[in-house]
Amino acid sequence: MAKTFIITGGSNGIGKETARIIASRHPEAKVIITGRSKETVNKACLNLQPLKNIEGYALELTDFASIKQFADVINTNVASGNWVLASIVHNAGMQLSSFERTAIGIEKTFHANHIGTFYLNKLILDALKKQVEDPSTPCRMIIVSSDTHDPKAKTGVPPPVFEDPRELTYIGREGFSKMTDSLLAYSSSKLCNVLYTYKLAQQLPAGLTVNAFNPSLVPGTGLTREHNIFIRGIASTILPLISSSLGGSTLARSCGGLADLMDSPTYDGVTAKYVDITQIKSSSDWSYDEHRQNLLWDLSEEIVTKHAG
Ligand SMILES: NC(=O)c1ccc[n+]([C@@H]2O[C@H](COP(=O)([O-])OP(=O)(O)OC[C@H]3O[C@@H](n4cnc5c(N)ncnc54)[C@H](OP(=O)(O)O)[C@@H]3O)[C@@H](O)[C@H]2O)c1
């Protein structure tokens, strides 16, 4: 029976550094990380050596079969008592530079950053509810969002659109021409992360908490990898130098904050909150709108029921 921490998207950037911190803090525990492929996650595990308590799995959030496979691993290990899940961080996420659809025809950022997480949680929720029936084995869920979800944060990324969440799927839309459109898809998907967190929290039993996390601007990760060489160049050279003047953070600070949210007694029983690196803060006005929360929930159910079976 091993105390276990799961971090999706732990093969790079924020997820990988957080895995390093958690695995070092808890040498007796198991730390599970995922990457889009076996290759990326295996490379990360090698890179995280000499830490021996990190295991990697493939998880592609735009592929329902891949999600089901990973959920089966979680369910089997939790049900057998092999893993006692202390926390699961839904951190995996992407930002695109142009419009792309996934195999089921929906916009890829929305699919990866929200629908994939929604489906993974749907598949593992029963196992987690069962685990927390024993008050000695609570579990924390964390959904990694971003301050780009909040127009008031003035991040430079266009603020989300969210009147009808069907807009987010961009079904039937011909295609994007401007880069800002893909950034808008990104900020909107990050609003979905917070709307979903608050709605999910209402349905969880005592012992199972869920909070949204904002790492703030963290230069030097792979988030801009899909952009052109010019944007990537700015992100890797100039942004780290000016990040603090833009209200940004560092990998060490943000990942330390995320690791605390995973394991610190400070957050015992805390649920339905938005944690900005180390502090509980208000999220955007829209994120508290129950009408938008319900619209998103219903659309997500509809998509997974139709396409994932
Ligand atoms: N960096 C920032 O400034 C910043 C600010 C606010 C919020 N965030 C959020 O922080 C999270 C981590 O971002 P990061 O900056 O660390 O980016 P990153 O370095 O690009 O890492 C992204 C991680 O997610 C995985 N991933 C990407 N697309 C995926 C998909 N379709 N299915 C499954 N896994 C996928 C990647 O796997 P592979 O290695 O296999 O590609 C990688 O492990 C994201 O949710 C992002 O929105 C970042």
From TrEMBL:
<dbReference type="InterPro" id="IPR036291">
    <property type="entry name" value="NAD(P)-bd_dom_sf"/>
</dbReference>
<protein>
    <submittedName>
        <fullName>Uncharacterized protein</fullName>
    </submittedName>
</protein>
<keyword id="KW-0560">Oxidoreductase</keyword>
<dbReference type="GO" id="GO:0016491">
    <property type="term" value="F:oxidoreductase activity"/>
</dbReference>
<dbReference type="InterPro" id="IPR002347">
    <property type="entry name" value="SDR_fam"/>
</dbReference>
<comment type="similarity">
    <text>Belongs to the short-chain dehydrogenases/reductases (SDR) family.</text>
</comment>
<dbReference type="Pfam" id="PF00106">
    <property type="entry name" value="adh_short"/>
</dbReference>
